[in-house]
Amino acid sequence: VQLQASGGGLVQAGDSLRLSCAASGRTFSSYGMGWFRQAPEKEREFVAAISRTGRSTYYADSVKGRFTISRDNAKNTLYLQMNSLKPEDTAVYSCAARRWADGTSQGEYDYWGQGTQVTVSS
């Protein structure tokens, strides 16, 4: 599966953004999906994940209550709605796919898309 993330940009603290991840190549619904981010000079970290059907979702504590992960299997698209953005959310956000399962560990994911930059000014 090929993944393409989009929707990043420069926003102010408190603003919202919605990231999208378009998937192609194989059956999207066969993959658990996740969002990860990497801030400058920091390691990549888990943000959110969603099961193949969308019934189960998982969030990092730092984004819980502010971010919402969702998917539209008919459109082969993964989303990340980000509200109440903070400067510490500034990072490159990447989507990832894991065959037949979901999870919060980046090592469990099989495919990665290029990232999209999110910058939050104070």
The number of helices is 0
Which term fits the overall shape? globular
Rg over CA atoms, rounded to whole Å, is: 13 Å
Helix content: under 10%
Strand content: over 45%
Report how far the terminal alpha carbons are from each other. 37 Å
Look at the structure and give the mean pLDDT: 96
Number of beta-strand segments: 11
Q: Which structural class is indicated by helix and strand composition?
A: mainly beta
The helix/strand order is EEEEEEEEEEE
**Residue windows where pLDDT falls under 50 for at least 5 positions:** none
- How many strands, what sense, and barrel or not for the largest sheet? 7 strands, mixed
Describe it for me?
Helix content is 0%, strand content 52%. It is an all-beta fold and 122 residues long. The strands form 2 sheets. Strands 2, 4, 5, 6, 9, 10 and 11 form a 7-stranded mixed β-sheet that branches. It has a 4-stranded antiparallel β-sheet with strand order 1-3-8-7, with no helix packed on it. A hairpin with a 6-residue loop joins strand 5 (45-50) and strand 6 (57-59). The mean pLDDT is 96.
Please describe the topology of this protein.
Elements: E1 2-6, E2 9-12, E3 17-24, E4 31-38, E5 45-50, E6 57-59, E7 67-72, E8 77-82, E9 91-99, E10 111-112, E11 116-121
Parallel strand pairs: 2-11
Antiparallel strand pairs: 1-3, 3-8, 4-5, 4-9, 5-6, 7-8, 9-10, 9-11
